[in-house]
Amino acid sequence: MSFKQVWSDEIHQDSRYGIKGEILVNHKSKYQEIIIIKTKNNGNALMLDGCWMTSDKEEKYYHECLVHPALSSYEDPAKILIIGGGDGGTARECLKYKKVSSIDLVEIDKDVIDLSKKYLKNTGQEAWKDIRLKIHICDGMEWVKEIHNNYYDIILVDCSDPKEHSNVLFSLSFYRECKRILKQNGIFATQSESPEAFKDAHLNIINSVKKVFSIQSTLYSCVPIYPSGIWSWTFASDNKHDFLSKKYKNIETIEKSCEIWNLNYQSGGFKMMPNKILKVLDE
Amino acid sequence: MSFKQVWSDEIHQDSRYGIKGEILVNHKSKYQEIIIIKTKNNGNALMLDGCWMTSDKEEKYYHECLVHPALSSYEDPAKILIIGGGDGGTARECLKYKKVSSIDLVEIDKDVIDLSKKYLKNTGQEAWKDIRLKIHICDGMEWVKEIHNNYYDIILVDCSDPKEHSNVLFSLSFYRECKRILKQNGIFATQSESPEAFKDAHLNIINSVKKVFSIQSTLYSCVPIYPSGIWSWTFASDNKHDFLSKKYKNIETIEKSCEIWNLNYQSGGFKMMPNKILKVLDE
Q1: A46 SS3 class
Q2: Which terminal Cβ of chain A has fewer Cβ within 10 Å, N or C?
Q3: A194: distance to nearest CA of chain B, Å?
Q4: B42 contacts in A (CB within 8 Å)?
Q5: Is B282 a catalytic residue?
């Protein structure tokens, strides 16, 4: 039996980014519309509320750039918090670090996790079976409010674009809670949108994170499936000593396992703020 | 009178990259199909044989990364050769350098130049009126064969993807001719495709350039309108002394004029070879 190949598109202003495939899932959860398609060349791909989240072939561009700059620059990354990340890719990259003892993955939409486990096996891989991974179906802001001070080593925000239920994850109050529950030398990381397709959101994130943490830096790279292709991740801390420099002992092993990221790639990405963004931030 | 807004798509494997707009030009030249559309948010955009070439809004991502790494690292960039570049954007960036005394722009398709002058005014801007710019409607390979040894300071290859009439511009024999007509400390630069969407072509370019020139380096960045968004430009020379380091005196003035590129951005881009490309090249 053969299924119909159709185009699914993320439409952003005058542009559209389409992937052709067979629709495996077209489901309305409590929070959003979830579409999963099966493609010939990209593996399976996940779309939430009309926006591409991930595809088997290209997800490493996103997950490796969110996780490794934070974890590689931490000697003993034991307790990790992931906000969002329901496809399992961020958890998978974190679990490569033997020193990680527990990951709290806080995802608001249980259906995203259940469907990812079933249809995006290449993304979560063995992460779902790892006893260090604890899943909590919960609003991210509510979770961080309940955690006591100085608890996590690393917080990774792996969420969709700012809108409705994810808006709060880009707020000053959320960033302040994250800072409170991070250890003193802890590292905060968030996806920070595209400087081209979502310039205002991108600038807002950088400016807000700057108000809360004493140091920060934004890494630029690409995610093929996202509007404009250009994407960014912002890292922050209150520990000025060697922020984002290599500290994890066996990082070379992690480097070898990666498709996109390595320490050199990372040091390049931190220099690639487009001139027009630099000019606006300098004003 | 209002015109119909339609989607024009570049289709690559399972993916499509579309821009919505009013079709201003749909013309079959001697060499290719030329489409120019007018959009609300991206300005005008040019498509050749179904592939996006440039748009008013996003062309600087491409042109600044092709031109400035070469010209900024040259003390006296006087004689420039551009192969392709019929939209005028590469010439425009070169003409920012006061030391440039002449640019030979060798474009095979006169219609691309004529239509760009009329419909992509924001890309060529004043370049077409600059007496330093000489236009030659000619095949790139034929042009380089006719030039005597050690003639140009810089050669910039600004061409479309390898196919039919552009294939020769990615050949060893073309690179060898370029090396012959470059001065001893001259710099060769070519767009070198996407490491994601056109991985084989990308690797072929790097490997071929390496066979001809003694040193080379590939810069990675993004072009929003191109398949996968990730793009690359490869620079080469036989002059080992300070390859691709700042030499042009008033480079700060050029930096200020740019939307994307600056010297820091460039040094980052040269580090961003994706790990999976690095692994293949190391084999």
Answers
A1: strand
A2: N
A3: 10
A4: 13-15
A5: no
Instruction: State ipTM.
Output: 0.96
Chain B hits for A265, CB-CB cut-off 8 Å, are 271-275
Residue B85 lies in a domain: yes
Q: How many domains is chain B partitioned into structurally? A: 2
A55 touching chain B per CB within 8 A: no
Residue B124 domain flag = yes
| Full domain range(s) for residue A198 | 59-282
Could you read off the pLDDT of B132-174 as tens digits, one per residue? 999 999 999 999 999 999 999 999 999 988 887 778 899 999 9
Catalytic option among B104, B111, B158, B161: B158
Axis crossing angle, helix B172-181 with helix B199-212, rounded to the nearest 10: 40
Identify whether A1 is part of a domain. no
Indicate whether B1 belongs to any domain. Answer: no
Helices (H), B9-80: 59-72
Note every long-range contact of A252-259, with CB atoms under 8 Å and residues 24 or more positions apart, other chains counting: A254/A68, A254/A71, A254/A72, A254/A96, A254/A97, A255/B275, A257/A96, A258/A60, A258/A64, A258/A68, A258/B275, A259/A60, A259/A64, A259/B274, A259/B275, A259/B276
Binary contact (B9, A21; C-beta < 8 A): no
At A2, is the pLDDT very low, low, confident or very high (cuts 50, 70, 90)? low
B256/A144 Cα distance (integer angstroms): 42
A272 in contact with chain B, both atoms CB, cutoff 8 A: yes
